[in-house]
Give the backbone structure.
Amino acid sequence: MVVPRGWPWGGVPLLMTAGSANTASLNIVACVKWAELRPEIDPLHGSVGDQPRGSGLSSSDLAAIESALVIAEAWSQSGTESSVTVLCAGPEAADAALQDLLAVGVERVVRLELKEQRSSAQVAECLAAVLTPEHLDAQLVICGDVSADRGSGSVPAFLAHQLGAVQALGLIGLEPTGSGRLTATRRLDGGRRERLLVTAPAVISVEGSVADLRRASLAATLAAKSKKIEVRVLRTDSPVEVHRLRPWRPRPRVLAPPLGDDALSRILALTGAQASSTSSRTLVLDPEQAAEAVLEQLAAWGYLSDAPPT
Amino acid sequence: MSNSDVPDVDVPDFDVVVVGAGPAGSAAALELARAGRSVCLLERGPYPGSKNMYGGVIYGRVLDSLIPNWWEEAPIQRWVTRRSTMLMTGNQALTVDYRSNTWGEAPYNGATAFRPDFDAWLAAKAEAAGAVLICSTTATGLLRDGQRVVGVRTDRPDGDLTARVVICCDGVNSFLAKEAGLYPPSDPANYTLGVKETIALPREVIDERFAVRGNHGVDIEILGCTGKVPGGGFLYTNAESLAVGLVLSLPELAKCGRRPEEILAELKSHPAIAPLIEGGEVKEYSAHMIPEAGYKMMPELIGDGILVAGDAAAMCLAAGIWLEGVNFAIGSGAAAGQAAARAVQRRDTSTAGLGDYRRRLEANFVMTDHRKLKDAPHLVMSDLAQQQLPRIACGVMEQLFTVTNPEPKPGLRKIIRSQMKLNNLKLRDAISQGVKALRTYG
């Protein structure tokens, strides 16, 4: 399977079906990622150490799977047969752990082998290509909110866009309310909560605190040993090119030698202590202008360029 | 269990359940699977070796018959070609260093390895032969039909697993063997605490400091480095890290009121050790109990429907000169697997039916070596070996090599006698202990 690169700016096709009354069953897909859980990052040059057996599913991914199982049970009880599929982006090393998921009630596990490094948008494209009605036919997609390997949490948003589905991201609570519907709780600033009514087709992401994955029975664990993991290998025609790995920190600033008659005044000049600090700004902008402003500020701080800021 | 809970054992889930996927358990499962028996290998960690700690050398000769040419695929760190024994006082060290490049060529002698790598490799062999490996599952108790063991209860929902034979390879302080009544009440004096730091260093730095090249490595055993607590120390080279640690008598450690990491810090700062580990980054600190007393603490190895192997059966050999564990675990595990397979085939898994296990152990190195060296652990932990011997040996060397001109050189006999006197060792005690050591190791 080859996934063409390109953002569908010309219009987002509706790739998820609603299921509901006309559909005999609903398919809930938990999208997860096999990632380094405790990456060891060299503080000097930012290289990531190779940790054999340090990989796995993050707590939020496990919460996504448990949430999918809970919702499927509730929807099935309310009259619409529902099943859970796990779609995992990861290498062959993940297979043994993924097989265990077949023991907890997951009906089908598909491992997506991504051969090249990809951006979040490209990962979402790959996932969307498998979630279509021709393949997994997902009515509800549940993701962990952030992948363990320093993810930005953007894949679920890209995925919702790709699939043309509604999205509710970074959820801290989920409650199935009826066939194809659920109530979601999201954290807001200031300790406030937002409650959302979500109807399939939708893409949601959950924090790790939402649920703990249930423990499989011994009989189910033994039975799962003979089940197979489906594998799909995806290649993209234009993978992301990684020019250089570097630590996630601002570049050093080039400063003129500090002026001052004594050491204290030179240190004060150098550090900017006692000088007025940059005050926070409130900008009211439309989304495109806001994005530009954010990029501009990040560049000013030195995050977006290898060259030291002047 | 109540009688109503007695499981149906006419058609058990497996012929044999092996508890613990360490070297003993995997060797047992491998033998059983190869004999065509259905076998389930239970492991409480997320993967074999994940719960294991070992600071030692793996001697692989026992694998020759189990996995031919095992050295071509076993995940080892370095082949040990230098074996050193160091006697140490607070600021002195006397080292006897032996090097053999023969040990660095096939079929090799011993190797350092990371247990998560080695145990997972051995368990994969058992799986490939047909054993069913179930990880993240703890055996919490035995299932019984009267006195007969008919399976194990696990911590999973609906977690009972029935079998004709249960082989306990659940490590030191085996709860299952104790529950089966195979162990007498525990004596803390039979146990030591092993503590270990894994210190990362670049490969070329290790090669330089330890005078080795390629995949050759060093094993240093140390006596006199544990203060007033009887025990010993060790330092092993891995590919890009060192394992430095201590083995400490459990009751004496408790009595002295010091923490093991304090004693380990003293060893690391010793002038003979500090330059070897300098600049390294501590990646891991771990601790584990060791069944130090070996033969004298071994449980009943066979019960009705149950066998005990590996550290669960105190098969670890802590005999001073020889410090071995994994090879004894593999040897006993393989013997248990063979005996269980035979008993299942003959449909007699009673204590008598499983008696072949004992006979196999007696016929190979496992029980022969343990019986022969049964007094060695006590000898190594004696005051003479722990306190007086390192001080006298280092003192003699100090006097022997210190040039005292214009005073004439003292004779060797005079030096030895003065050091013995200084350390309150009488000649008759030295002779008595020497004879005892000769009898033990001879």
